[in-house]
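Hello Y.,

Per our agreement to keep a running log of every chain we model this quarter, I'm adding this entry. I've kept the format consistent with earlier entries: sequence first, then predicted structure.
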Amino acid sequence: MITESFLLNKVYPYVSLIFLIVTLTFIALLLLRLLFNYTDPNPFGKVGRFSYKLKKHTDKFVYPAARLLAQFRIDTKLAPIITILITAVLSYFLLGIIRDTFFIIDVLATAIEQNNAKMLVGIVLYALIGLLILAIFIRFIGSWFVFTRNTFLGFIYRVTDPILLPVQKLIPPVGMFDLSAMIVLLLLGFLQGIIVRSMVFQ
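Predicted structure for the entry above:
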């Protein structure tokens, strides 16, 4: 039985709060950009200059969504909405990865302290699946960018191809977005839940 979860109970709440503040700030800036897209402020005024700077600094996040909308002949001014939705999904998974990391460290320490082999094997399996989830998460984000097979992202693709390619045959990517990655992430999360219930929480 896990006796104490220091990182999960003491540290994670503060980390998640900071993460939430950063995410909501980014979303607020994207909503402001969306507003500027349709109000078209005077470029020589203070609001116009701020709008230009905001657009310049958020272009790299919004441009992939704009390209996706352009493929379907949808107004690209709506791209910030797509970026906000993707940000929400990615934030959910990233926060889950952070929580899992703290959980793994806490349980690993408990398993070693109690000399519990079953718990130790269970948390190691859980951690290995967690690494695969992290790799798929990085791949999903990397689908927004150009990469070569000699880069770290290329390595991530080679590692995750065996599990993602069969799913991609059933669910092809939509534009630059690999929806199969989301399905695999959910399945891996379900597998982690089984391991936790059967080997960690005894």
